[in-house]
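Note on ligand handling. Small-molecule inputs were canonicalized before submission; formal charges were left as drawn, and no protonation-state enumeration was performed. Where a ligand contained multiple stereocentres, the stereochemistry in the source SMILES was retained. For zinc ion, this procedure yielded the string shown in the input block below.
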Amino acid sequence: MICKKCKNPGTIVLRKKDNYCEECFTASMNHKFRACIGKNKILSSNEKVLVCLSGGTGSSVLLNLIFDGISVDSHKKLRIKVCFLHVLMDAADDNTLNQAQKIMDQCRKRNFNVHVTHISEYMKPSSELLESYCLPSKNLKLEQEFSNFINKMPSTISNDLYPKIKRSLFIRYAKLLNCNLVFTAETTTTLASNLLSNLALGRGSQVQNDVGLCDTRDDTVTIVRPMRDISKEELDHYLNIKQLEVPHYDKTKQNSLQSVINTFVINLQESFPATISTVCKTADKISAIDEVQTKETCIMCQSNVGTEKTTLTAFDATNFSRTISNSELLDGGSSNHLHFTENNINKSMFPFIYKHLCFSCSRNYSEMKHTLPNHVQNLLKDK
Ligand SMILES: [Zn+2]
Ligand SMILES: [Zn+2]
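Structure output:
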C-alpha cells in the first residue's frame, strides 16, 4: 500500500480506499482539529478554554491533540490556556472512580489541571469549584435524588436528557473558572447519530446548536466541538498510533431510539462509507429559519421555546393523535368537531409548551415520574 499523500509505504486505510502512512495521517488529524477551531475566529490569543473530558475515545484524542498543539514550538503553537473538567456519572460505582483516576493520570502526565464533579450536582442550584485533582466527597442523599430522577423515565428520554444535564454543568463550571469557551469531544460519527435522533425527537430546530460547530445558546459561554470533522474510524487509528489508553467507553442506554439510530448509522457506514459525512454535511445546511423568534428560552435545553404556528407541526400531529386516543368521539361518532382551534388543544398533554419548555422538553416532562430538580421546577412557576 502506498500513502496517497507522500507516496511512501502506508499502513492506514480509511473508508476502505484511502491509504496513508502514520506520519501523514497524524498530520491530517492535527490539521482537521486546528482547521475546525481556526474557523470563524472562535479563539482569540490566550483565550481560556474549559475542556470537558468524558474519558471516552474522543476525549482521550482531544486531550492529546491539545497537548501536541500547545507543546510545539513554532508559529503553529496553539495559543490557549486550558483547564479540564470531568463529570463523574455514578460515584457509587468503583469503575467510575477508577475511570476518573485514569483521566486524572492522563492530565497529570501532561501537566494539565483537571477538576472533577459529580452529575448529581445538577440537582443543586449552584456548585462550588473543588481544587483540581480532588474527587468530590460522597453525597448519598443527592446521588439518590439524582438517580431517582433519571432512572424513573424511559431510556429514550434519559438518553435525550443526559447531554442537556451535562451541558448545563459544563456551562456552570465554565463560569466558575472564568472560561468563555468550552470544548467537547463529539466526533462526526456521534454527531451524525445525534442529528438523526434530534430530528426523530422533534428537535429539528435545535440541530444547529446541538450538532453544529458551536452551541451559542448561552449568553456568555460558547460550546465548541473541535472534533466534528474527525470520524470514529480515524480516532481508533490515532489511539493505536499514539498508544493512548481509553479510560472509559461511552454507552448509550439500550432499547432506546438513540441506540437504534446509532446502530443504523454505524452499520450503514460499513457498507456506504460516505454515509456519515453526507449526514453531517446535510446538517450544516439545516439552519433555523429566521421566523419570529420569541425571547423565551426553554428552561431545560436553553433553546427557543418556539411559538404556535399556523401551519401544522409535529406538536399538532402528536396532540391530535393523543386527543383522539384519549377521548370518546364527539357527537356519537362524528369527528366533525375535532377541529384544531385554540380551545381544544389539550395543553395538559404538553405541559408548559411554548411558555417555559420547547416541544421536546415538554413531551419529556410529561413522561417524567419524578419532577425536575427544585431550582429548575421553580422556574416553571415563577416565570
Ligand atoms: Zn505519507
Ligand atoms: Zn427544551
